[in-house]
Amino acid sequence: MKMVTITNNEDNLSLNRKLRMTHQRQVILEEIKKVDTHPTADEVYKIARRRLPHISLSTVYRNLDILSEYGMIQKLELGGRQKRFDGRTEKHYHIRCIRCGRVGDLTTAKTLDIENAFGGKSDYEIVGHRLELLGLCPKCKKEKQDQRKSVTGGHGKEV
After folding, report:
1. What strands, in cross-sheet order, belong to the sheet with 93-97?
2. Global pTM?
3. CA dist., res. 103 & res. 126, Å (int)
């Protein structure tokens, strides 16, 4: 079992902590980093069981919390739904389908400097922000268009 030293220099905070990297934790981390689907804990459990058939759901939940606490993955709490997990830890934004709940990454050259823009506007100490855009994923958009066509008979007017 190896130890990993986590160093976080973001926002000029120096954080050096050691994390025992168990085999189960390593597998969970590797599997999350392989996908771009932002899986739920249950989905991570199903994925991890392919490599670790005897892993328990509680072990997966516990390790997801630890990995996110140490900044090795992101825990996403979007739109009041189940928490999702992201292997990309650099700052980036997400878009969520309002129909099926699918979550995707938005790639931009630069993230917004919202913390500084709103820093003096309240008595809160702002420590970060989350930006979630809402829309229809390509699959749901197509289904919606197909439903419209079936209602209108493909002519744009209801039949």
Report:
1. 103-106, 93-97, 132-135
2. 0.71
3. 25
Write down the CATH number for the domain with range 1-90: 1.10.10.10
Q: Distance between CA 16 and CA 143 in Å, rounded?
A: 49
CATH 3.30.1490.190 in the chain, residue ranges: 91-159
Instruction: Count Cβ neighbours within 10 Å for each residue of 29-66 and write b for 16 or more, e otherwise.
Output: bebbeeeeebbbbebbbebbeeebeebeeebbeebbeb
C-alpha closest to that of 85 among 101, 105, 99, 64 = 64
* Strand 84-86, strand 103-106: pairing: unpaired
Q: List, by residue range, all CATH 1.10.10.10 domains of the chain.
A: 1-90
**Rounded CA separation 96/101 (Å):** 6
CATH fold of 91-159, please? Dna Ligase; domain 1 (3.30.1490)
If you average pLDDT over residues 31-48, what whole number do you get? Answer: 95
The pLDDT tens digits of the residues spanning 120-157 come to: 788 888 887 778 899 999 999 999 998 888 886 666 55
